[in-house]
Structures are given as C-alpha cells and as structure tokens.
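Data card: per-record layout.
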Amino acid sequence: MGVAVVTGAGRGLGLGITQKLAKLGHTLVAVDIDEESALDAAASVGGRGFCCDIADRDAVRALAEQVGPVDLLVNNAGVWRFGPLLDLDREAIEDVVHVNLLGTLWCVQAFVPGMAASGSGGVVVNLSSGAARMHSPGTGIYPVTKNAIEALTIQLAVELGPLGVRVNAVAPGSIATEATARILTPADRAERERTIPAGRMGRPEDIADAVAYLASDAAQYVTGQVLYVDGGLTSGRVNRS
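The structure for this 241-residue chain is written out next.
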C-alpha cells in the first residue's frame, strides 16, 4: 500500500482516516500541530508521528525531507474562526487562509515531487466541506477557503495528471466529532439530524471510507473530483415531524 501522510491526524476526522488507512496496510505518517496528539495517533497505528504547523512553508519542506518519499497525501488539517465577515480581524482571517488553503498547497509542493520522481505516481486527497455549498451567516472565511480547496483540487489534477498523480477531494457534511460535540447540545444534534436526508450526522468512519476509496486502485480513473459525503444535506433538507 505504501506510505501515507495525514495532516491534522491527532483527533477527529484525521485520526479516523489514519486508523482506516493503517487497517488497509498503509504505513502511516501522522502529522499534527500538537506533538502529543501526533505521537499518540502514530503509536495507535504503528506509524511515525511529527509535529508541524502546515501554515509554515519552510517547516513543511523540512518535514517532507525528514519523512522521505510517500505514496499518499491526505490534506486534512484545517481550522475555523467563525464570525461576521465585517467583524473578523486580520489575524482570524489569515489563520484560516494560511492553514486551510496555503497549508494544503505547501504540503502538495513538498510531498508531490517525490511521488512524481518515484515513477509510480501517487495520490492526493484534500478535505473540503459541505460549507463550500451551504453558506450560513457567521461562518467567516471558512467556506471561502473550502471553495478554494475544490478549485485547487481540480487545478492540481490537471497539472499533476501527466506525472501520474491523482488529486481528489472529500467534502464532509455534519460529522459527529469531539469538536462538534463541544458546540452542539443533544437537542441541537437531534434538530440537525432531523433535517439530514440520511437521518443522522456522519461519523469519522464515513469520511475515512471515502478517503480510502479515492486512495485505492478502485479509483485509479478518478481525478479532479469532489466527493460529497454528507448524507444528502447539501442536496436539500428534509422536514421530519
């Protein structure tokens, strides 16, 4: 299966993706801005853990040199700073843009040349979000960066295809993680699930399965695509009584 790098691997979706890929036989490199979380995630799958702020281009390049050639890059790390756009300060805006968009690009620039040089190509899977389609007041610059990730995914697929590298994205909907548990009360979650066509919030495993598919040979003719894994939420809300 080869070597897989997962950013933001310490918790939530990143940890779920890391564990899924390990079960499928990948050798995992768990990357997180929190060193303890990165090391714990790596230990849980017998891989290697590294602390890195992906918003720091030089740090990402140093990480790539330390890790060596990889076959799969999953750009999962992301942040949000919610609030009305007119009220967001420069730091809040730059944090989200530098991690979500530029951090993804820095990782691609650092790791993909090694994929191309190997002669066997490789796979990149970026994480978008249902927020790229469903815009709500107060979500800040986050949806903008996820729209940009989708455009970046398509552009990369076109440019990297001749090098044998496939690039796709997965866009999660409402997923039950530690982060959402902190901001959703049980009543909030029940109300949200009532409107999702599939009848429930997603689980990290749902996203991990989608990433695993796009990373597999079953998707070897799939590139430049965005796979929405959202229980139908971005297609339309239902009204369960």
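Known properties of this structure: The beta strands are 3-7, 27-32, 48-51, 72-75, 122-127, 165-172, 226-229. The chain has one domain: 3-235.

See the next section for split statistics.
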